[in-house]
Design a protein that fits this description.
The complex is a heterodimer of chains A (255) and B (339). Chain A has 255 residues and is an alpha/beta fold. Chain A has one domain (7-250): 3-Layer(aba) Sandwich (Rossmann fold). Helices cover 38% and strands 23% of the residues of chain A. Chain A is globular and about 65 Å long. With 339 residues, chain B is mostly helical. Chain B has a single domain (4-338), classed as Orthogonal Bundle (ABC transporter involved in vitamin B12 uptake, BtuC). Helix content of chain B is 76%, strand content 1%. Chain B has helices at 4-7, 9-12, 21-44, 52-77, 85-102, 107-129, 134-154, 156-159, 181-204, 206-216, 218-223, 228-254, 264-277, 284-302, 304-321, 325-338; strands at residues 172-173, 176-177. A two-stranded antiparallel sheet of chain B has the order 1-2. In chain B, strand 1 (172-173) and strand 2 (176-177) form a beta hairpin. The chains are: A alpha/beta (255), B mainly alpha (339).
């Protein structure tokens, strides 16, 4: 890949009290790439996600997005720059319909202003907005469920809806926290297909997951994390055969 | 299209579900008819009321309706409890009364200044405190209400302290003086409609959707780029603005105000009215005050203490048996019929 990286993380560190959750992590994420982040439980994957998306602030280090330093910026401001993320326990607007969830996801594309507050959207603006909502509903495939409450959906559908909500803002970088967790085989395939589609439409995808098969299957590059440190960075095949990776998952061979 | 209906689904009840368009269209006609009917009653009804006592109640109910409509922006839309609105009402009342009496402001000028002052304090207090979690926010509003009341009592040079401010002039707009109770009722009604219009717009606009999102799941709302803190402060400021406006109307109606009118108990009453009517709705904040003010005023004619106890019992019963108030019940019945 050529040119400036989409995302550049340098010397990222986060300490919780005396515990170092993320220790001096550096990596780059290129445009249009599907980057995976794997590692055993407690390795600090979600912390990295939270740091990059601005949900929590790093103790040290720098996060650059399209050449711009976004370290320490407010979470919602980072989202407005084009980084959208989903949450591990799949937060949704539970009491609202699927359709309404997607509408909220499209918040940044809904025209604002005092005049609109008092007199409503023009017909054309509303039409364009609804079309946008519609295209996302179709994209993630929840057409039949549109009037259902989000918290009444099956787990797999909730995950798909979660991805749909993050797509609403038309982000350049989509960060998915464990999109395959708790999914069965068919759901995983459907979700992997969706993730590939997102990357194909020109967005970069950064994902964390435990499902090694899915990760290895769809990622262009994989980062492996253990005890807060990056132990490998490379193409899936390379990483799979890396002794450090095998060690972090299976432990050291007894001599 | 979105309706406030959909957006309050979480609070409506556990069994409610977002209605499909056909159901919504069917209830839409009923709703429109109900609105027209209610408007007719509100406009024409009082003409047939001869008793000045009942006219007096109607004005008080109207002022409480404005207060609860405003309060509901916080309680219903943000899903936070606020127990200091009587204090903001007092700010509006004192500001307007003092400016009209001492600085030669017109009634509308005083009312605007009272509203602005309450908004100013709303922003001042909301900006830091809305960063706190729900429970801490309630405590802050509670304390702020008490502090305002202490100021009304102790800033004797300005407010005349516990003796109160007598001799506030009746409102005058374009040479017409709102002297009698019936004309004052219509003045209040005009302001109710104004507040109702703004609240309706909040419900159906982009802001309403953002507020609903924040109430449902603030982290995700921020993840899609909603500036949650800004929206929360705006909603709170609008809410305190309404309270200030109601305070000004109150001052110029009773022509006398004292700290006792804006004490904690009144904040609490407003909160109960809001819950009883149904939070997060447009009609609930009208039903709640109407019912409770009527009960309260009727019982005051006999003994005031039992009324207080009744309010407390009411609150407990509402929280246990109908967390979404009378509007929640109405909606539940509506759904059953539709299904």
């Amino acid at each position: 890949m050529s040119g400036r990286p989409m995302l550049r993380v340098e010397g990222l560190r986060r300490q919780f009290g005396g515990f170092v959750a993320v220790d001096d992590v550096s990596f780059e994420h290129h445009h249009g790439e599907i980057l995976g982040l794997v590692g055993p439980n407690g390795a600090g994957k979600s912390t990295i996600f939270n740091l990059v998306s601005g949900f929590i602030r790093p103790t040290a280090g720098k996060v650059e997005y399209r050449g711009r330093d976004i370290t320490g910026m407010d979470f919602q401001e980072i989202a407005r720059l084009g980084i959208a993320r989903s949450f591990q326990l799949n937060k949704l607007f539970g009491g609202l319909s699927v359709e309404e969830n997607i509408r909220i996801g499209c918040h940044l594309h809904e025209p604002a202003g005092l005049r609109r507050f008092f007199f409503g959207q023009g017909r054309r603006a509303r039409h364009a907005f609804e079309e946008r909502v519609e295209s996302i509903i179709e994209h993630v495939g929840v057409q039949e469920l549109r009037y259902q409450r989000a918290d009444e959906l099956s787990y797999g559908d909730q995950k798909l809806l979660g991805i749909g909500v993050t797509l609403g803002s038309d982000p350049d970088l989509v960060m998915l926290d464990e999109p395959f967790a708790g999914m069965n085989q068919t759901e995983t395939l459907r979700c992997a297909e969706l993730v590939r589609g997102i990357a194909k439409s020109g967005k970069s995808v950064f994902l964390v997951d435990h499902n090694m098969r899915a990760i290895m299957g769809i990622c262009d590059r994989v980062l492996v994390l253990n005890f807060g440190k990056l132990v490998a960075d490379g193409a899936p095949v390379e990483v799979q055969n890396n002794p450090a990776v095998i060690e972090s998952y299976l432990g050291r061979r007894a001599c | 299209m979105s309706t406030p209906h959909l957006q309050v689904a979480k609070h409506a009840s556990a069994t409610s579900r977002p209605a499909e368009p056909e159901v919504r269209a069917a209830t839409g006609h009923v709703k429109r008819a109900a609105v027209v009917f209610a408007l007719l009653v509100a406009v024409a009804g009082p003409l047939f009321v001869e008793s000045t006592l009942i006219q007096h109640f109607l004005v008080l109910i109207g002022i409480n309706v404005i207060l609860v409509l405003s309060l509901d922006l916080v309680v219903g839309m943000l899903g936070l409890s606020a127990l200091g609105h009587a204090g903001f009402m007092g700010i509006g009342a004192y500001t307007s009364a003092l400016l009209v009496m001492n600085q030669g402001f017109s009634f509308l000028g005083g009312l605007a200044a009272g509203t602005a002052m309450a908004t100013f304090f709303g922003v001042l207090i909301g900006y830091p405190s809305l960063r706190l979690g729900g429970h801490f926010f309630v405590v802050v509003t509670f304390i702020v209400g008490i502090v305002f009341n202490l100021l009304f009592t102790n800033l004797v040079e300005i407010t005349k302290g516990p003796m109160g401010l007598p001799g506030i002039p009746a409102p005058e707009i374009g040479g017409y003086v709102f002297q009698d109770k019936l004309s004052y009722y219509y003045l209040v009604l005009a302001f109710i409609l104004l507040v109702l219009f703004i609240k309706w717009r909040v419900h159906v606009s982009r802001m309403g959707r953002a507020l609903t999102a924040i109430r449902e799941e603030e982290d995700l709302a921020r993840a899609v780029g909603i500036r949650s803190h800004r929206y929360k402060v705006t909603a709170f400021a609008l809410s305190t603005a309404g309270a200030g406006m109601a305070g000004a109307l109150y001052a110029h109606y009773l022509r006398f105000i004292g700290p006792a009118s804006f004490d904690f108990l009144h904040s609490f009453d407003l909160f109960v009215m809001n819950l009883l009517g149904g939070k997060g709705t447009l009609l609930g904040p009208i039903i709640g005050p109407a019912l409770l003010t009527a009960i309260d005023q009727a019982s005051q004619l006999f003994r005031p203490e039992p009324a207080r106890i009744l309010f407390g019992v009411c609150l407990i019963l509402i929280i246990i048996y109908m967390p979404s108030g009378i509007m929640g019940l109405v909606r539940l019945l509506d759904r059953r019929k539709a299904l």
